[in-house]
Amino acid sequence: MSKGTKDIKKNEKNQSKKEANKVNDNLYNHSSKDYLFNMSLAPGIKESTHWFQMLVAAFFTAVIIMITRMHTYQRPMEQFFWSGGDNNLTDFFSYYKMVAILVCAILALVLLLYRVFTQSFYIKRSFAYIPMIVYSILVLLSYILSDYNLFALWGWNDRFEGTLTLLSYMVLLFFIINSVNSEKNVKWIIYPLAVTSTLLGLLGITQALDHDFFRTAIGKKLITPSWFWDQVDNLNFTFQNREIYQTVYNINYVSFYLTLLIPLFGLLFIRSLMLGKEEPVWKKVLWAALFTLQVFNLIGSASSGGLMGMAVVVIAAIIVLNKKILNWWKPVAMLLILTVIVAGLSYERWVPELTGAINSVLGRQVVQDTKEEGISQEIEEVTSSGITESADERHTIDYMVTSGDAIEISFNGNEIIFTTYPEDPTALKVNDSSGERLSIVPTNISPIYKVDDERFNRITVRPAQDDSGNNYIVIGTDGNEWPFQLTEEGPKYFTGLGKLMDLRRVPSIGWENNLEFGSGRGYIWSRTIPMLKETLILGHGADTFCIYFPHDDYVGKYNSGTFSNEINIVVDKPHNMYFGAIIGTGGISMLALLALWGIYIIQSYLIYKKERYHSFVSYVGAGIFLGICGFLVSGLVNDSTVSVMPMFYGLLGTGIAINMMLNKRNASVE
């Protein structure tokens, strides 16, 4: 390189430093237009919030996710026909996180009151307040009008994301927006987040290596009360060996929250490397190690939702950062190399998940290894000769309905009607949809009968009686049995929990030929979408989805593929945080959140597309922006939960505050 070129480079660098210094000097001069409201002793808007007040924001954003502790509680579950009736429940991953969220909200309110009493209270001008207020009002109204106030207030079992929790999110979001004023404040969010992310990542490694810390004696005692220690050897989580679940209850939620962190730590590594000798080598190594650790845990969680979110992060980064990526080619290349190395070392974890996701989207049916799952691949069919044959696949039951004294079944598009008589289960009349009488003939296996019609040759029927003398008709379809007790009110389906139910046609929309989409999400969403019309304005109450889901849709679960062998399973969440919000707090509340998130994304796009990236906060702001983009897309297949939403709202509040800082700086420069 010639001497003239070196001088030009040096002058450019000096000019950039001067501009950066000017930016820092003008980063929030006190002006009333910066405030929506401010009291007489309100600090200048460039002044850092005291570190003591930042502790609440740091704890909410970075620490709550780590809380894991056993809690026993009671809920009135006997009122639900689909519940086992056990009112005594145990939680490890959600209750104390919820408690911590409420405590943080209370402390934030106390600090805001302190500002009022010391005449230092202020409210920055922000687009966020109107959607936040609208959302909070809808959350409250949905609770007030809910038929299940207890659940709506505290949240559903093992989830605890009720009205109080949702309102706490808004309190903390407001507090963080009005507390993060400087680079120092930003670091009070980011550095604790880096520490806790490291600890969680290391915990994930122990789980991936089949040496889960929570399966050790000390790990079990750490998360249980002392009165339980004599039983601690019996404590075993249901997670399969080598699944990375960290402290967030569900392996899907690991990849969900990591979409927030990976772009953030990646950009901080890029900044560190671009600073050259101004940044110590150990910092470069730490950011690279932290990025790699998070990538490993994302892949190790084996959740395609997180991979989808990261794909969006990459696309958004290319669009927003554009030519800057070329200027950062060295650190970007290093991040890609680290990602490829991790992906190569753990290919056996992500390849099956990604392949399964692709097959699921394309509607391809994949036969599972039944030796591991314990599910028989063979479906037995009773023939007229009494010989059992292997069936290649289950046939579809279009519907199964109890009506009066009849059981109506549509099987592969053909309807058959069983008319029953409670006093004699063998006195059975069978007709097709046209009214033609069908015969049932005995098989070699007594007392099983078969319908003598080619359209229904996979349907069997047998009489039965319980110890109390109640008569039953047991209808068989592809090896699955459907017991109906014959009562004076007509036949009632006898559930796996011993309850008598009328069967109905459950409304569904979409995924008719691919109910297995997304590990059963196709089935869940197809039953959730018809529910949305009831909550377009107000919801049923926060976190009450489980109560309103059609758990009596036994036929739908039978057809789903995913739940075919567990038709009594309870679907307690929609696996889509947008659907969950609409059901819980209403369509208008969801629109308010979309406005909040959407305006932030548009504002961030306009800022970071032009940003020159001279400061720590600009890199952090861009990382938060990209992470939130990925998170919101991952939310299409994941649920809002107390494990991940504190981090989301903490970073969102920080991101909004950073955007204010950068907008003020840009205005000062211009």
Automatic annotation (TrEMBL):
Annotated spans, Disordered: 1-23
Segments of skewed composition (Basic and acidic residues): 1-22
MF (Gene Ontology): ligase activity
Keywords: Ligase, Membrane, Transmembrane, Transmembrane helix
InterPro entries per UniProt: WaaL-like (IPR051533)
Keyword Ligase in record: yes
Transmembrane annotation, as ranges: 51-72, 92-114, 126-144, 164-181, 251-269, 305-321, 328-347, 577-601, 613-637, 643-662
Domain of life: Bacteria
Name the UniProt record assigns to this protein: O-antigen ligase family protein
